[in-house]
Amino acid sequence: MKLTMAQALIRFLDNQYVSFDGKEEKFVHGMFGIFGHGCVVGIGQALEQGGHDLRYYQGHNEQGMAHAAIAYAKQKNRRSIIACTSSIGPGALNMVTAAGTATANRIPLLLLPGDTFACRQPDPVLQQIEQPTGYSTTSNDAFKPVCRYWDRVVRPEQLMTAMLNAMRVLTDPAETGAVCVAMPQDVEAEAFDYPDYFLQKRVWYLDRRQASAREIEAAAALIQGAEKPLMIIGGGVTYSEAWKTAQFFAEKYNIPIAETQAGKGQIRWDHPLNLGGIGVTGTAAANEIAKQSDLIISIGTRLTDFTTASKWLFQNPDVKILSINVCAFDAFKMDSVAVIADANNALLDLTGALGETDYRTAWGEEILTARNNYILEMDENYNVELPEGLSQTRALGEINKLISPNSIAVGSSGSLPGCMQRLWRSIEPKTYHMEYGFSCMGYEICGALGAKLAEPEREVYAMVGDGSFLMLHSELYTAIQEGLKLNIMLFDNSGWGCIEGLQNSQGTKTFGTRFLARNPETGLLDGDIVPLDFVKIAEGYGCKAYRIETVNQLREALEDAKTQKCCTLFDMKVAHGSMSHGYDAWWRVGVAEVSESENVGAAYEAMQENIDKARLY
Questions:
Q1: What is the Cα–Cα distance from 113 to 316, expressed in whole angstroms?
Q2: DSSP letter, residue 275
Q3: H or E element: which one contains 347?
C-alpha cells in the first residue's frame, strides 16, 4: 500500500495488540501531541486523515503530556500506552526528562519527536542545533542515554525495522522503558509501497517468564535455612498482578511484608503481616524488622538507595538476599541469589517446592508488636494539632479517611512521598500511584491526568507541593479539554520543605529552599514569604477551588468536591516543617568533607560512621 511514512506509522500503531494470561487487548490507545513544523504536516496530517482508531490528545507542555502517558501506562499495568509526538528542537528536548522518568521506572513510553531534514537541503532549519563535529547529530541524540531503544528513520522503508524493534522493547517486561524513534520531517511525508504484512494486526505476547528448576531449588533452600526472612513487595508484584499470590505465600510461611513505593497498596495496609513502607521513607515497623532479618526476599524491586537505606538497613551480619525479578540486571543487585522470572510464577513455584516441608519462620510477637506500635505512631501523625496551623500529616490523614477507598492517589516528589509511604492507608490495589523511581517534580498533576485517562470511573487525587505545582501544571488544561475531573491537593508550605529538611539535617542552615523575597538589606533570599493565591490560579482554569487553613475547612471541602463535575483544587496552607520524620534509616548524601561549620563537620563524621556499617555493593 502506497503510504507516507507517517501514514504507515499510524496504521501500524493502530494494529498493535498485547496478550497477557490469554486476554488480548489493544496496546496503543492514542497519541499526545503538540504540533509544530517538525510533525504537523507529517504525523499531524496522518492523524487528521483518519482511517484509524487512535485518539488524539492535545498536550500543553511536551514533558507534561509525556508524563501523563507514563502514568496512563503505569495505571494500566504496562499493557496499554499513549504515544507522544512533538516538533523538533525545544519541543523534542522537553520530553527528555519524561524519557528518564519512564526508563527509571521501567514504564513503556513511545516518543516520536520530529527531526531535521534527512536530505539536508534547507539546513539549517528553524530550531535546528548544528554540531560542527558531526552533521548527523541533532537535538534528538539527547534521548540516547535515557531510552531503552533509540532510532532515527532517515528513509521511509526503515520505519518497519524501527517500529518492530520499538514494539519489542515496549512490550518486554524486563527491557521496557522509554523508546525514541526520531522522525525527520521530510521523511514523514515521503511515500513507500509498504507490504500488507507490516500493516496487519500484530499480537505481542507478554508471557510470564518461568524460573529454572535450579533457581527454584536454590531459592527454596535459602528460605528453608532462614529463621527470620522479610519479603519486600516491589513494582514487579504490581505489574505481574501477583499481590494475592504474595499475600498467600507470606501467610503460609509467616513471613512479614514491607513495601516499596511502587509496590505499596497491593496488599491492604491493615493485613497483620504488612509492616508498610521500607527504607528512608519507610515505617518504624518495617525498618526495625529489616535490621533483624537474616533473609531479604526482594520481589520485583530495583533495591534503590531509598529501599535499602543506601545498603545500610540490613544489619544482621548473616543476612542474605534473594531477588525475584523478571530483569536479570535487577535480580543480581547486592550480590543476590537471583531468580529471573515473573513474580507470580516464581512464588507459585516456590510454594510448590516448600510445600513438601513444614517450614515456618521463627517470627513471634515481634511482628505484631512492631505493627501495633507503628499504628499508634500513624494515629498520632493523623491527629497532630499545631498552634501555627494545619499539619501536613493531619491533612493527609483527613484526605485518606474521607475519600473513597477506590480513589487513586498520585504523587511523586518532595516530602509528600515520604509521608504517604509511611502513613497512607491503602485498601484496594492500584489506588496508590507513586512515581518515585525518578522522583520527578511536576509529574503529579500530569500523572493524575494519565491515571484518570486509564480509569475514568475513579476519582483521582494529585498530592502536590507548591514547588511541584509551580514547576508544571499545564496538563490541567488538557484535563478540562477532555471533560475529566482531577482533584489537586496542593500542600503549600512556601518552599521545598523536603530538601530544606535534608539541608538542615546535614548541618547547613536554610539557604535557597524557602520561597522568600529578595531582602534589599542583606541582598539574600531571606525576606518575607512571597504570597501566592493558588485559588485564583485554579479559578482562572475554571476549577472549583477551596482555601484551606483548618481541619474543618478541609473536611467540608472534601465533601463538597465529591459533588463537583469539574476539576477541583485545594489550596492547603500547611505549617512549615510539619511533614513526617524518618524512622531509623540512613540516606547517604555528599556531605562536605571540610567546612567552617561545626555542624557540617559533625554530619560528615556521622556519614563516615554509617558508611562503615553499609554494604559496599
A1: 50
A2: E
A3: helix 343-354
Going by C-alpha positions, the residue among 472, 459, 444, 460 that lies closest to residue 70 is 444
Check: CB of residue 493 under 8 Å from CB of residue 427.
no
Is a pLDDT exceeding 90 seen at residue 356?
no
Q: Tell me how far apart the alpha carbons of residues 252 and 250 are, in angstroms, rounded to a whole number.
A: 6
Per-residue model confidence as pLDDT tens digits over 536-571: 999 999 999 999 999 999 999 999 999 999 999 999
- Interatomic CA distance for residues 501 and 513, integer angstroms: 9
Type of residue found at 303:
L
Bridge partners of 4, per DSSP, are 191
Q: Would the CA dihedral through 322, 325, 327, 333 be positive or negative? A: negative
Residue pointed to by grid coordinates 485545594? 570
Among the listed residues 29, 35, 101, the one whose alpha carbon sits nearest the alpha carbon of residue 70: 101
Question: Distance of CA 153 to CAs 145, 192, 445, Å?
Answer: 19, 13, 33
Give pTM, 2 decimals: 0.97
Summarize pLDDT for 195-223 with one digit per residue, the tens: 999 999 999 999 999 999 999 999 999 99
Alpha carbon distance 84, 82 (integer Å): 7
Q: Name every residue whose Cβ is closer than 8 Å to that of residue 319 and which is 6 or more positions away in sequence.
A: 293, 294, 295, 296
Inter-axis angle of helices 96-105 and 62-75, nearest 10: 20
Cite the DSSP H helix spans in 204-242: 213-224, 235-240
Spatial distance between the Cα atoms of 498 and 352, rounded to a whole number of angstroms: 45
Mean residue pLDDT of the chain comes to 96
Domains of the chain listed by start with CATH number: 2-205 (3.40.50.970), 213-370 (3.40.50.1220), 383-494+530-573 (3.40.50.970)
Query: Nearest-CA neighbor of 176 among 31, 329, 62, 350?
Result: 329
Pairing of strands 202-205, 274-277: unpaired
